[in-house]
Structure formats: structure tokens, C-alpha cells
Design brief:
heterodimer, A: Deoxyribonuclease I, Chain A, B: Lipocalin, 3 helices, globular
Chain lengths: 370, 264
């Protein structure tokens, strides 16, 4: 640098920075199969030595966005949280997790050092403030600088947290969207599955699979993601291992009463339009037919009012929940009646996320499938 | 002088610069040194300001096109020789508000969040002052040391979330957010052959009021001189900086075109 000329502080570096986008790893791309990133709590909490059942929770935590209306939901213009907002929301997430006391936790939309969540490493925060000891993380959006809406640095991903050590953790890439222009695709999400084995003392390793499929594609990307997810489960089933799998499938259960025209759908056109499920009504049929859902399909389909099963709302603090998008499956056995859709995390004027957690208790034993 | 010159002394030197002794030089391409342009010579570049030798010891410069959205002006004044060193001071002003507001927009191209919670970029007047000392080590080798201070006056709150997390840009925007920034650095320039020269720079940038603000820059370039009127520069910048999420190093390519002229 020749000087601290204020103009050079902006324009020349900006141009150089932009030019270098072409020659630096500004957007991290991923191999088809990679090792996921391992985490550990700063202080370990003693895990139960012998267990017959496990409480499993899945939760899309919306990067600790709480009830904040972000621009992509079309209700407001928020982009970047303050540190105070992020930590406050994380504290409330932790309170809920600690109250539920899960043994295995599947998380979607976890931010690591992202600008929009005040550069906080949410993986480490959650491990350090809950009884979870070990974690694995797979990024689905790692960009040094997103030149849109002031987003800046972003690292968003999926996580598996456990009381017991995790092993053989894998990040499995899912197909990219094909309905976007190349520039948008380059900077857009690279969705994935994260899978790991849980080493429970005295037990065969339990396989855990977590997925977050595409939300807004106008092509068949979401179906390809669901199929890839089932393919992974089929491989575990074939190996004879027990698995628990779940996540945010962004698709409705078979037999949903409402498939479109949701009352909380604000983004009616553009990149975040995703409220019409008419053509995907049967996309989860195979999963339900092959494996055991935590919430039995009959319970959902036979309910006159399906709302107690809803797990997502675009603006839950005022418009409530509108659909079920979050699931748990196993090739083993659930403790009958143990599934809980924790709708208590939303209410008038408050919400810990736009998704609510789903928990169910898994019986440790043989695997079988439906 | 040079790197050992305390910053307050540099400021005093700057304030008294108008009374400094006269100095002439016959060197060309004096950007980044304590040497000033000869009277009437102009230099311009792709990423360089348009500079004019007003007298043999005073030059002024501006980024011409940038004035449309970021008015700017700078001066360099030679203070003559102190022992083996030629000493000069530089002072500059800019008003980057319109530029930053242009980058504060929704959608693609939005480098700064447009949300109401972050707020609009306030009026900012940025000023900087720097002292430079150049020693001609030999016919083919020039050494320059420099140190300076920048300060920014703001007409309102500037949210920290308006930062742009790009190397070089992030560190330098800290001046607008925190008001004061210090730099210290040096450069060596030499000649490989009649038409080929080189230059190496190293600088430290510190923003005292900010956390995660220190940055180190190292720049190298090879320069092809085509006579006294045109030069092509190719090189790199290594940026090692502290960011809110940790430290990172980036190696970035650079290219520059510079040309000179005469002005009566």
C-alpha cells in the first residue's frame, strides 16, 4: 500500500477484491462425498452408560433468527442480526433443548461465523451450552462474501449433536438447482446430507442421517434430494445397521389437507416462492412405505384437524403454523406415542424459529423397516 | 525520519509544510515516494489518481471518475532534504458517502445491507495525512518509509454491520466506523534493466478503537516502463488481516496501467 488514501480504501480494493473472486476459493464447492467437520464441547457432560431408548430431536433453528422477519420471507427487510439478538435467540434455543433433554439432536440451518448471525459459531455455542458433547457439521453454504443484500460472509449447514462420540461422519452432496442462472447458482446453497455413527457403549453403532432438502426450486431438485436421502437410508438398511434419520424435507406428508394457498405465504413470485405442493403430493410416499415415521401416517391422515402436527410457519409469532415439513424416520422401532411436535416454542408475539422441533423416542435394538 | 518518526511529529511537520524548503527532482513515476512530480508533468493510471505537478515541490491529485460518487482531493508537498532523505507530506480528503450508499442496496450488488435496522450510511468526511521519506540508495535503488494517520468525521451513527468483509476493503472501512486509523510502512524500488523495474511494499494498518482490526499488507510488482510516458505493472498483494470471525490471509493479483503527460 502506498498510503491510506481513503478513496483507495474503497474502490481499488473493491475492484481487486472482485477481480480476485475468479481466482480464489470465495465460494467453497464440495466433493460428492467428504468427511464432515467434528466438534466437541468445551466441557464434556457425563453421558448415560447404559440406555435402552434414545430421545431424538430434529429442529430447523433458522440460524437463531427467532421471530425476526428476514427479507427472504417477504414480511420485512431484516438481513443481519446484532450480536445481542443472536445470543438472545441462542439462549432461548438452548433453554428448549435443555428442557427436552434429547440424546441425539439433528439440526438444520446452523450458522458458523456468518455475518448475518454476528459471526458467532453456533455449533460450538450449542455444544458448550447443552448436554450434547459431540457434534459433526456439514456446510451447505460457505461463501467468503455474498455480494447480495449485504449478506457478506456466510456459512450455513446441518449438524448432528450427540451425548456420545460420533464417528465416520460424512457430508454427502445433493444435486444443485437447475432452474437458476449460473451466477446465482454459483453463490447459492449447496445442499447436503450429513451422516454419522454414534458410539453408544455396549451397543452396535447407531447411524444418524440428517437432511435439509431444497425449499424453493421450480424444477425437480427437491425430488432428487428426497430420493438421494432414501437411497442413503436404503444402503444402511441393506447393511443391517439401525438408523434414525430426519430433518427438514420441505415437503408435505401424503394426505395433507392443504397443498397450496397457505395463509402465511407472502412470497408469491420470485426466488422464495415455494408454497404450492400440488405436484409433489406423493413425493414422500416411498419413505413412508419403507420406514417407520415418528408420527404415524395414519394419525396424520385420519386427523380431522392436522394442525397439531404442523411444524412450520412462515410467520409463526402472528400467523401460527401452517404445514408439516419436519420428519423423523427409523428402520427400528419408536416408543409408541412418544412423538411430540413442540408447538410450545411459538405463540403470539414469540417464536424460537420458523420451525418447531420434533422429538420421538427410539428403541435401541434390531432394525427392520416397514 | 521515516519509520522512526513519531506520528505527532509527522503531524507537526505536515502543519508546517508550507514553510519547508524547496526541492526539485528529475525522477519520473514518483507515486508512493517522497518525490514530487516536476512542474507540469501529469500522471494517471487505471487504479491511480490523476496527479499534476503544480510546482516542482507541490503536486495535487484526484481520482477523476470517482469524483462523480466520491469527491476526493489530495496534495503532496516536498519539504526538501534532511540528510540523505527527501521528505514530503501528503494530505487528502474524500467524501465516500454517496459511494457507500450506492453499495447499500437490496439484491445482487448489495454489498451493504439496506435494512432499516442497520440504517443509512451517514455523511462521512475522511481525511488522511502522511509523512514520507525517500532515500536514493543507488542509481537503481530507492527506499521509502512512511507513516500516517487517517481520521473520519461522521454525521451520524455508522452501524458496524455496514462493513464489507472483503480483504483490503474491510480493514479500510474501519476508518469510517471508528474514526481514526494509523499506518506505517515502507517500500523498496529498483531497476532490473533499462525498461524493467520492481517494487516491494510492506504496510501495517491499525485501527486503535476497533477489535479485530490489525492488518498487514505486502505488495510486490514488476513494472515495464515504455519510455517516460507509459508503464505496465503486474504483481500481487498479500493481505493478512483480522476479521470479526478470525484472521485470514489472501493473495490477490494486481494489474496497473499508468501513463504520463504534460500540462502547461
Amino acid at each position: 500500500m502506498n498510503s491510506i488514501t481513503p478513496l483507495k480504501q474503497i474502490m481499488a480494493p473493491l475492484l481487486i477484491g472482485l477481480a480476485s473472486l475468479a481466482c480464489g476459493p470465495w465460494v467453497t464447492t464440495f466433493e460428492e462425498l467428504e468427511e464432515a467437520e467434528y466438534y466437541q464441547a468445551a466441557t464434556l457432560t457425563a453421558a448415560p452408560a447404559a440406555v435402552d431408548t434414545l430421545l431424538v430431536m430434529t429442529w430447523n433453528i433458522k440460524y437463531a433468527g427467532g421471530k425476526i422477519d428476514f427479507w427472504w420471507a417477504c414480511f420485512d427487510d431484516r438481513v443481519l442480526m446484532t450480536e445481542e439478538e443472536t445470543l438472545g435467540n441462542l439462549e432461548r434455543l438452548v433453554e428448549k433443548i435443555n428442557a427436552a433433554q434429547p440424546d441425539i439432536l439433528l439440526l438444520q440451518e446452523v450458522d458458523v461465523d456468518s455475518k448475518r448471525s454476528a459471526y458467532i459459531n453456533q455449533m460450538q455455542y450449542l455444544l458448550d451450552h447443552t448436554d450434547m458433547n459431540y457434534g459433526v457439521y456439514a456446510s451447505m453454504w460457505r461463501v467468503q462474501f455474498v455480494p447480495s443484500d449485504g449478506l457478506g460472509r456466510a456459512d450455513l449447514g446441518l449438524a448432528i449433536l450427540s451425548r456420545w462420540p460420533l464417528e465416520d461422519a460424512q457430508r454427502i452432496s445433493l444435486a444443485l438447482r437447475t432452474d437458476q442462472d449460473p451466477l446465482t447458482t454459483y453463490f447459492y446453497l449447496r445442499r447436503c446430507i450429513v451422516r454419522a455413527g454414534v458410539a453408544i457403549p455396549g451397543r452396535d453403532p447407531l447411524q444418524v442421517v440428517n437432511v435439509h432438502t431444497a425449499a424453493f426450486p421450480q424444477d425437480d431438485t427437491k425430488l432428487r434430494h428426497i430420493d438421494r436421502f432414501k437411497e442413503e437410508l436404503d444402503a444402511i438398511q441393506a447393511s443391517g445397521d439401525l438408523f434414525v434419520a430426519g430433518g427438514d424435507l420441505n415437503s408435505l406428508p401424503p394426505g395433507s389437507h392443504r397443498l397450496k394457498d397457505f395463509p402465511d405465504e407472502k412470497c408469491l413470485t420470485g426466488d422464495f416462492e415455494g408454497g404450492d405442493y400440488t405436484r409433489e403430493a406423493a413425493w414422500l410416499d416411498n419413505l413412508y412405505a419403507t420406514y417407520r415415521p415418528a408420527v404415524p401416517l395414519g394419525d396424520f391422515q385420519n386427523a380431522t384437524d392436522q394442525s397439531p402436527f404442523f411444524s412450520f410457519g412462515a410467520k409463526p409469532d402472528s400467523l401460527g403454523l401452517s404445514r408439516k415439513l419436519d420428519y423423523l424416520f427409523t428402520n427400528g422401532t419408536w416408543v409408541s406415542g412418544s412423538a411430540v411436535t413442540h408447538q410450545d416454542i411459538i405463540g403470539p408475539g414469540f417464536a424460537l424459529s420458523d420451525h418447531v422441533p420434533l422429538t420421538a423416542r427410539l428403541v435401541l435394538g434390531g432394525s427392520g423397516g416397514n | 525520519m521515516g519509520t522512526r518518526l513519531p506520528l505527532p511529529v509527522a503531524a507537526l511537520l505536515l502543519a508546517g509544510s508550507m514553510a519547508a524548503s524547496a526541492q526539485t527532482n528529475d525522477r519520473y513515476w514518483s507515486a508512493g515516494t517522497a518525490l514530487t512530480l516536476p512542474k507540469g508533468r501529469t500522471e494517471n493510471g487505471l487504479f491511480q489518481p490523476y496527479r499534476v505537478g503544480r510546482t516542482d515541490r507541490l503536486e495535487w491529485g484526484t481520482y477523476l471518475l470517482l469524483n462523480l460518487i466520491a469527491p476526493n482531493l489530495q496534495f503532496k508537498l516536498s519539504h526538501g532534504r534532511y540528510g540523505p532523505y527527501s521528505v514530503a507530506s501528503r494530505i487528502g480528503f474524500s467524501y465516500p458517502t454517496f459511494l457507500l450508499r450506492t453499495l447499500q442496496r437490496p439484491g445482487i450488488g448489495g454489498f451493504i445491507s439496506p435494512e432499516a435496522d442497520v440504517g443509512e450510511i451517514p455523511p462521512i468526511l475522511a481525511t488522511w495525512a502522511e509523512i514520507l521519506a525517500t532515500r536514493v540508495m543507488s542509481d537503481d535503488l530507492l527506499f521509502t518509509a512512511r507513516g500516517g494517520i487517517g481520521w473520519a468525521l461522521r454525521g451520524g451513527r455508522m452501524d458496524e454491520r455496514t462493513s464489507i468483509d472483503l480483504p483490503l476493503v474491510y480493514q479500510r472501512m474501519l476508518l469510517y466506523m471508528h474514526g481514526v486509523q494509523l499506518n506505517l510502512g515502507g517500500a523498496l524500488a529498483g531497476r532490473l534493466s533499462p525498461g524493467l523495474s520492481w517494487r516491494m511494499d510492506a504496510d501495517l494498518l491499525v485501527t486503535p478503537a476497533a477489535n479485530n482490526s490489525n492488518a498487514f499488507f505486502q505488495k510486490g510488482s514488476i513494472i515495464w516502463d515504455r519510455g517516460k510516458r507509459f508503464r505496465l505493472r503486474l504483481g500481487y498483494i498479500l493481505v493478512y488481516g483480522e476479521y470479526p470471525y478470525g484472521s485470514q490471509a489472501h493473495l490477490l493479483p494486481t494489474v496497473g496501467l499508468e501513463w504520463a503527460g504534460k500540462r502547461s
